[in-house]
Amino acid sequence: MIKSNLANMLTLIRLLLVPVFIIALWYQKPFIALVVFTVAGLTDAIDGYIARKFNQVSQFGKIVDPIADKTLLVSAFIFIFNSQLPIKFPFWFVVLVISRDLYILAGSLLIYFIKGYLKVNPSVFGKATTFFQITTVIYTLLSNVNINFYSELLYDTLIGITLLFMVLSTLTYTYDGFRQLNMTKS
Length: 186
Hints:
It is found in: Membrane. The protein is mainly alpha-helical. Helices cover about 80% and strands about 0% of the residues.
């Protein structure tokens, strides 16, 4: 049974905003896409805070929250790259973002099928990756709304920092995955 609480509602709102965001990009409405994505990104920070602060952590949230995050972010990277917007992500960056997520998902499923359980421990690097991915998307959309905000140096720096945390979080999750494979269920 789904536990109805504010944290879970915010997670569902984020998931429901994904098609609205995609439609805004499809129709080349970067301002609307920016507003929708920013609201969705804020729900990511707020729902986690509320869940921990007010003891609203639930199985539903543990499962659906990362799905909502990845759906939002992967959609953003793919649809911005494929849009007619003048400023978009480099192809190699989009491939790395998606590949990292698929790698972590495949590893998680592998652990679950081998061990019969999976304990996901969000790492500081994983949280930083999400933060910088969201920041990079917001900056890209903002630059497409008003080209005067665009700075190639800032854009490249954001992509570089995001890439760094993607690598660090991937290494952290890989290490944690191997550790779980080698331990017995307690």
